[in-house]
Amino acid sequence: MSIRLKLGITLVTLAFAGASLAQTPDVKPTRIRGEIAAFEGDVLKVHRRSGDTVSIEVKPTAGVSAVKALRLADIKPGTFIGTAATTGADGRLTATEVLVFPESARGSGEGHYAWDLGPNSSMTNANVDAVVEGASGRDLKLSYKGSSNVVTVPPNAPVVTFTPADRIDLTPCKKVFVVATAASPGTFVAQRVIVEKDGVAPPM
Fold first, then answer.
1. How far apart are CA 7 and CA 92, in angstroms?
2. pLDDT, block means (10 residues), the chain with 204 residues
């Protein structure tokens, strides 16, 4: 396989990863966060944060990727990001993590909607219009689908982007974030698996 073809496949894979992670409000996937207990054949067993263990079918066509760490300073005007945030009593958004999408995935899941990382959690997939130094971190002025908001990114919030991974990276004890559809009680079919790699766990 040529280097150009491999690069093309990687870009398509990462673009699909963005689309899978950033679902629009009318699509209700199951998001599974936890630690790999086992991966045998096409069945991934994940011990969830809630304490139970679920079985997830990972078909050969399911996308597998990882994330690598970036610096807060890597977020520039014109970047397309997805950021999970919490809403404070004052109505301000504070980021709990930021995913910088590759340019090939620009526009994935664009919008602002509820997320499931805790109470008052939301997800905003948007273009960064401006970056302003604030008292509690950097304020990102975001725009999406004719609307806008401001998210403060504290210095300790993880900032990541996609990096390639494969099924061989699905080994026990690694952290995973899986976007899946329910098949039957306690079993799921994976659309996308984001796995810990080189010590960087998926924060979304």
1. 40
2. 38 45 58 97 94 95 96 95 95 96 93 92 97 86 95 95 96 97 88 97 94
